[in-house]
């Protein structure tokens, strides 16, 4: 490389399950996250970053392809018989950066492509090396530390993708019958700073118990992130590394994960790159979407995103330059535990949600028969059912508890947002436009019947 050319920036993306913005640096005073808070204090924090889907696989598929789930093929979970997968032609950020000359490594959680052997996964996504042997935060962080020593000594810039399981719900010996909590057999509950109940949930003793578990899992994950950050510093590689921390979607609590309300779509997004000036504890309040991260990183590393990418680079926001702000965020869910197709458009002030089945009002992500957290909105029976449309005034009602869709004074807003949502669905060739979407399990089961 000629001496006058700058050294390409390394890229590290650390992500975890089910976090939302549940960090101290986002104003959550009862959760202990000193390492990620320190990263935010030394980087750029995005206060209004959103995922495209409130569930594990579709959200990550968008994050790493820059394309909406209903386009890239991952309309539901990718593991076991859920079996959704990226379409054959989809390109992953790891492979795109490898094409630019980066050594590309994936460690820990991988949920954006159907589960395969590590060698097959590396070939499918375009990585030089994949290790999904463990997904728990502590061993994954140790694997990242070991990899960083090799990567920093290499003769190529590197892309390192590090995925942590925590704070996903994990079955453990301390769970009560019918409950899946956040502890597994290795996490300690944490109420050392108190417990705060989110505004969309009822404040009950069982909710406080569950939130203390969640806070312990987040603290555990934060410690693992801290080990990776400390190793970058020790190796002298932090200044020339674009360090990104984010999560897939919101907390695994009712009306958050598996819902299109803001608690399901909101995500932490922290980026630091000292050599690029992305430092100093800056805060950006513009709305950004996970689909925007891939084109941003490609632009920052000298690459370009194709015309088929749905996101747009927010590099000017990082550089402190003029940037045309997003006017809307789009979100979606099709399959998770069951078929529950929904789409939404969010502007600065309003949210419109379109529901395409009469499923319960929201899908509960508690993963057990016994629910310790209960939502404030609970009308008829155990669970009310979807209305066709929901409209929320996010300024007057940030918890999205009052549906205004039948308010005559809101008819103009409903019409405007309905048109925006329909146009987005048509332009992106959303399969819901033509009717119901069939799952891979449907195909597998039908084939089994026909063979019998």
UniProtKB/TrEMBL annotation:
GO molecular-function annotation terms? arylsulfatase activity
Which Pfam family, any one, appears in the UniProt record? Sulfatase
Entry superkingdom = Bacteria
- Which keywords label this protein? Hydrolase
InterPro entries per the record?
Answer: Alkaline_phosphatase_core_sf, Sulfatase, Sulfatase_N
Coiled coil (UniProt feature): none
**Protein name as it appears in the record:** Arylsulfatase A-like enzyme
Native organism: Actinopolymorpha rutila
